[in-house]
Amino acid sequence: MQIATPPPAAIIFDLGEVVFSWSSSTTPKLPKPILRSIMKSATWATYERGQITRQHCFELVARQLSVSVEDVSLSFAQVRQTLNVNPGVLSFLQDMKKQQKQKNKNKTKIYAMSNIGREDFADIAQSMDWTLFQHVFTSAEAGARKPDSASYEYVLKEIGLQGKGMGDVVFIDDKEVNVRAAEEVGIKGLVFGDETVDILRSMVEGRGDVDDVDEENKEGWWNQSESESHLFQTTRGREIRSQ
Fold first, then answer.
1. Mean pLDDT of 208-223
2. Contact (Cβ atoms closer than 8 angstroms) between residue 166 and residue 188
3. How far apart are CA 219 and CA 87, in angstroms?
4. What's the chain's average pLDDT?
5. How far is CA 171 from each of CA 66, 72, 141, 179, 224, rounded to the nearest angstrom?
């Protein structure tokens, strides 16, 4: 017999490659490996934490890579233009918003958190109905990036769920390292995959829980190879891997 489980108090979505995706068919001005190296750089991390402006970031990385600032700026603008919303996730978010307006329906609140700079977030403002979320927390706002534990603790404090039991908050991200870091601070996590939306629907309807997910399938959603990883250090001092 299926035992009903309480729905989570909050679900937190990552944005990139969960709510949104970028087309791989675009050909930006600068080669994609260069753009990826920029986004993995310490300079980019500083920008995403809100400590420098995007223009300053572009100037620094252009100097480091011996390319023009104009080409860096143009390339990222070209990538942003290919932004698409995941239709399955969008449908779930719209259904949850409708439920919020109905009496006697579950009141799971929906949030988002993302490693993104202020200017980049402003640029995608027209790409999504942000009223589908109670709030979108950016790394620039928090002053910390995933997988740093400070980023999750900031969000938990802001939504009033800091120190709650495991299962009150569920977090979805496309990177396992970010999910594991969330679990370190007491958040249940799902690595985003084809079945994630169905699992979330079951959870908010009291028909399932993250722990019900078959571990083999859960791990199968993560296809990041070890060679694509590098180390991050959380503020709790535990070493974890990230791409």
1. 46
2. yes
3. 23
4. 85
5. 39, 32, 18, 7, 19
